[in-house]
Amino acid sequence: MAESPPISALENLTLDCQEDGVWVLTLNRPAKRNALDAATIEELIEVFSKAPRLGARAIVLAAAGDHFCAGLDLVEHHDADRSPAEFMHLCMRWHEAFNKMEYGGVPIIAALHGAVVGGGLELASAAHVRVADQSTYFALPEGQRGLFTGGGATIRVTDLVGKARMIDMMLTGRIYQGQEALDVGLMQYLETGSSLEKAMQLARRAAANLPLSNFAICSAVSHMQNMSALDAAYAEAVVAGVVNTQPDARERLDAFAKKTAARVRPEPAQ
Ligand code: 1HE
Questions:
Q1: Residues 13/46, Cβ–Cβ less than 8 Å
Q2: Which of 67, 69, 150, 168 registers the highest number of CB atoms within 10 A of its CB?
Q3: How far is the CA of 95 from the centre of ligand 1 (A)?
Q4: Which CATH superfamily is domain 13-207 in?
């Protein structure tokens, strides 16, 4: 693993790097409902830029308090009275953070609860897997606030729910929760219990994969979405050439050939 400088001190996030390579990164401004101020975005960039080189094998993104994230820090935005150029540059920092998440090659599992709104949904949609609990709800209140999304929702939330639903959410402030949110694709898991517990299980499972496989899954799929079908097929072949011949995979293939590896079968019905 290439050397990477250690992660600088964090104020708005807490980071717990567990021994199995699973990291738990927690948004930690619960008094402000984890609203994303400029400093928090810089901390997200710091962690997600360095995590792949520091050997993180999976990251659970969690949040302290009753809500996952209330989006853009509206009070900071109000007080800063930003110019168009200043806000554009701020959005580019959000994109830097969220692109590091989506394209960084380390699986990120978001453990959601309470409000996942505005920029909070933009943050959650940059994770690879979203797990919700019964308290979780999703909305894009930008329209009501006289704002527009600036942290990638036009791309990532549209990818999740489709253009018509995205526009409806922005125009009408529609809130999705529960089974309906699951059905439209805002998350992949809906828990009756703790979303964090489920996210940890999923992270541990993903962390047991070979890092190079996870790197491909958590960067190549996204990159390929940005390519023409012809180029994506080419890139897929190149990535598979590297990943599918990795020496570390030999042991797993041997185990399959010797019939000691687990088979792919559903759990027996209860
Ligand atoms: C905040 C923020 C915030 C709370 N920026 N400070 N996002 C929104 O439009 C959502 C705005 N927030 C809410 O609707 C509610 O706060 C919640 C439903 C999330 C939670 O309600 P509640 O009753 O638990 O908390 P609260 O009383 O509204 O707020 C508690 C404190 O958090 C209070 O601060 P305090 O110092 O007066 O105690 C609030 O000001 C603070 N707070 N949300 C700043 N968002 C790149 S563009 C992205 C564009 C967007 O994200 S727009 C969507 C903005």
A1: no
A2: 69
A3: 21
A4: 2-enoyl-CoA Hydratase; Chain A, domain 1 (3.90.226.10)
